């Protein structure tokens, strides 16, 4: 018997089959774009790759878990010359080098006054409920590139929220950009503060945080070792270590320093100690709750830059027991911060995490020298005097000389009036510097674009040069030469691997876990986060998303 299908039945079945085919096709497409509710960006000041790698086996808390479960790049390397805090954070935030974002160092010379000023100086904006210093960091006015925070707020049309926290203004400001909130520790009052660029009054959650007086509560505390002494490598009391802020050179370290009450002097010791990590964790938790970060479907950003590691590094060096213990305690602190961020976002599936650093750092040069490394401490004040004398002898006029890391600023009436030719003086200064035993090369700013780069040192100087703020002459120190006017401790500011290589870690939805050994550039951090947030990149970004670590799934 033949089966007869009525025409109207055939039409209905055809429509049904068509509908099923469409639904099947749609199900094969990616789900509707949905960015993580909350991004937690963590910066660890002075966390060089070498420092992290040799301490990694002992890290079992938040930091260790990120390394084990995230996409971990141990070898990200800054491509510009001066490995410093302000340019490092600006590069992480913008995806650009200093030649685009304009932040060349922590401090620069104001050419109008000849005075050294902090790079984020803005005398038109006051510090709220803190101490205002006209030459101190206050706003992002000098940041010449869009940041990840700015792009997020633009992409969400102002509906998202951004909060950046650090002990240092020069770290918090670029992470907040022009449109987020930046809060930092005021060493005069012991409170978290901001400037009138970011707020007109202090919000309730910051008032409540400051009312807890966490820095004051640490007055009189003793920094003890977290683990048994046998677990620490090397010697505790090394000859080249200073008695930092009266804390002593060996454990245990008292933060009291003979004082009778907490204040600016005790806050300096507090900043060196790992207790500063705890304050930033508490500030992060307060921001999560107070601003309601991660509570809705609009992406938010919390950026926290831990500065205590850098303070410890400068005083005791990257191989010290103090640095080892600071990392162990940071490992614990990050576990608490990440757990709080997970709760705020409603689970790990709604949380994106990134971690990196602004720079690494040199060993204490005397310790290097004692082990046979050709290291030396170079005092820029003494070099400035010697160069000024050389220029006086050569040209018969006085030229002022000021050296900030690798930048040499020249000035004085003879130059300003045209009594001597500026180009000739700058080239003479560069020629003298290039002959010094601590230098590899030196260039007048006039020759920066045309100089041959046979050894690869000129390109980093170019990427770090911004005409309005960089020096008149730029030089490159040899490896293991530590430029600092402090007689003890150590410093950073050159492009060698021990200072320029830092870790980068991504973790969360859309990230392919693993250890990625290719060398990348930290300019890739902001573009990669932009891709994971499914938005455009910051306007001046030079980096690119790290596609090999992205799954493409949502």
Explain what the structure shows.
The chain is an alpha/beta fold. The protein has two domains: 38-361 and 498-549, Alkaline Phosphatase, subunit A (3-Layer(aba) Sandwich), CATH 3.40.720.10; 371-483, Gyrase A, domain 2 (2-Layer Sandwich), CATH 3.30.1360.150. Helix content is 35%, strand content 16%. The strands form five sheets. The protein has a nine-stranded mixed β-sheet, with helices on both faces. A four-stranded antiparallel β-sheet has the order 13-14-16-15. The chain has a two-stranded antiparallel ribbon with strand order 3-4. α7 (169-176) links the parallel β5 (162-166) and β6 (181-186). α4 packs parallel to α7 (169-176), α8 packs antiparallel against α11 and α11 packs parallel to α13. The protein is globular and about 70 Å long.
The overall pLDDT, averaged over residues, is 93
- Beta-strand percentage? 15-25%
Low-pLDDT regions: 1-5, 16-32
How far apart are the termini? 53 Å
Strand order of the largest sheet: 7-6-5-10-1-11-18-2-19
How many β strands by DSSP?
A: 19
Instruction: Return the CATH topology of the largest domain.
Output: Alkaline Phosphatase, subunit A
**In CATH's first tier, which class of the largest domain applies?**
Alpha Beta
Keywords:
2 domains; Gyrase A, domain 2; globular; 554 residues; Alkaline Phosphatase, subunit A; 9-stranded mixed β-sheet
Give the arrangement of secondary structure elements.
Elements: H1 7-28, E1 38-44, H2 49-55, H3 62-69, E2 71-77, H4 85-94, H5 98-101, E3 107-110, E4 115-118, H6 148-155, E5 162-166, H7 169-176, E6 181-186, E7 191-193, H8 204-211, H9 214-217, E8 222-223, E9 253-254, H10 264-272, H11 275-290, E10 300-306, H12 308-316, H13 321-345, E11 351-356, H14 365-370, E12 376-378, H15 380-395, E13 400-404, E14 407-411, H16 413-417, H17 422-434, E15 439-444, H18 458-463, E16 473-477, E17 481-483, H19 497-500, E18 501-508, E19 514-515, H20 525-532
Parallel strand pairs: 1-10, 1-11, 2-19, 5-6, 5-10, 12-17
Antiparallel strand pairs: 2-18, 3-4, 6-7, 8-9, 11-18, 13-14, 14-16, 15-16
Helix pairs in contact: 3-13, 4-7, 8-11, 11-13, 12-13, 15-17
InterPro entries: Alkaline_phosphatase_core_sf, Alkaline_phosphatase_prok, Phosphodiest/P_Trfase
Active site: 85
Binding site for substrate: 106, 168-170
């Amino acid at each position: 018997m033949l089966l007869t299908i009525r025409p109207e039945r055939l039409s209905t079945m055809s429509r049904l089959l068509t509908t099923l085919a469409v639904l099947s096709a749609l199900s094969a497409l990616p789900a509707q774009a949905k960015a993580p509710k909350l991004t937690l960006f963590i910066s660890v000041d002075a966390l060089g790759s070498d420092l992290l790698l040799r301490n990694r086996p002992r890290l079992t808390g938040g930091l260790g878990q990120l390394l084990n479960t995230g996409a971990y790049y141990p070898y990200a390397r800054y491509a510009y010359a001066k490995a410093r805090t302000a340019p490092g954070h600006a590069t992480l935030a913008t995806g650009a080098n200093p030649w685009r974002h304009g932040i060349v160092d922590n401090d620069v010379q104001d050419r109008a006054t000849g005075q050294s000023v902090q790079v984020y100086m803005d005398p038109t904006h006051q510090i709220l409920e803190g101490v205002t210093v006209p030459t101190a960091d206050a706003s992002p006015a000098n940041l010449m590139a869009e940041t990840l925070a700015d792009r997020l707020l633009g992409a969400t049309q102002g509906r998202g929220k951004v909060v950046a926290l650090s002990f240092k203004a020069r770290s918090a400001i670029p992470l907040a950009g022009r449109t987020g909130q930046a809060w930092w520790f005021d060493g005069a009052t012991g409170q978290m503060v901001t400037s009138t660029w970011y707020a007109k009054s202090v919000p309730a959650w910051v008032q409540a945080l400051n009312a807890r007086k966490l820095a004051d509560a640490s007055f009189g505390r003793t920094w003890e070792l977290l683990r048994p002494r046998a677990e620490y490598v090397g010697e505790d009391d090394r000859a080249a270590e200073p008695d930092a802020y009266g804390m002593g050179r060996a454990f245990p370290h008292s933060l009291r320093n003979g004082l009778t009450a907490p204040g600016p002097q005790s806050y300096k010791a507090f900043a060196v100690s790992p207790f500063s990590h705890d304050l930033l964790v508490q500030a992060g938790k307060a921001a999560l709750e107070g601003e309601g970060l991660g509570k809705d479907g609009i992406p938010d950003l919390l950026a926290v830059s831990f500065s205590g590691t850098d303070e410890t590094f400068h005083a005791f060096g990257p191989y010290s027991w103090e640095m080892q213990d600071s990392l162990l305690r940071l490992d614990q602190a990050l576990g608490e911060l990440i757990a709080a961020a997970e709760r705020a976002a409603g689970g790990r599936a709604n949380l994106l995490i990134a971690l990196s650093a602004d720079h690494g750092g040199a060993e204490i040069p005397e310790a290097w020298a004692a082990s046979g490394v050709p290291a030396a401490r170079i005092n820029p004040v003494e070099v400035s005097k010697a160069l000024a004398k050389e220029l006086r002898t050569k040209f018969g006029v006085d030229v002022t000389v000021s050296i900030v890391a690798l930048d040499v600023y020249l000035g004085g009436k003879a130059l300003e009036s045209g009594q001597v030719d500026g180009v000739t003086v700058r080239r003479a200064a560069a020629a003298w510097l290039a002959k010094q035993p601590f230098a590899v090369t030196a260039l007048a700013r006039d020759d920066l674009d045309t100089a041959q780069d046979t050894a690869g040192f000129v390109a980093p100087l170019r990427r770090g040069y911004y005409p309005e703020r960089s020096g008149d002459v730029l030089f490159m120190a040899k490896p293991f030469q530590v430029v600092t006017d402090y007689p003890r401790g150590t410093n950073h500011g050159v492009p060698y691997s021990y200072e320029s290589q830092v870790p980068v870690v991504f973790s969360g939805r859309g990230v392919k876990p693993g250890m990625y050994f290719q060398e990348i550039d930290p300019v890739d951090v902001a573009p990669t986060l932009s891709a994971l947030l499914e938005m455009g990149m910051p306007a001046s970004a030079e980096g690119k998303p790290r596609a090999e670590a992205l799954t493409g799934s949502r």
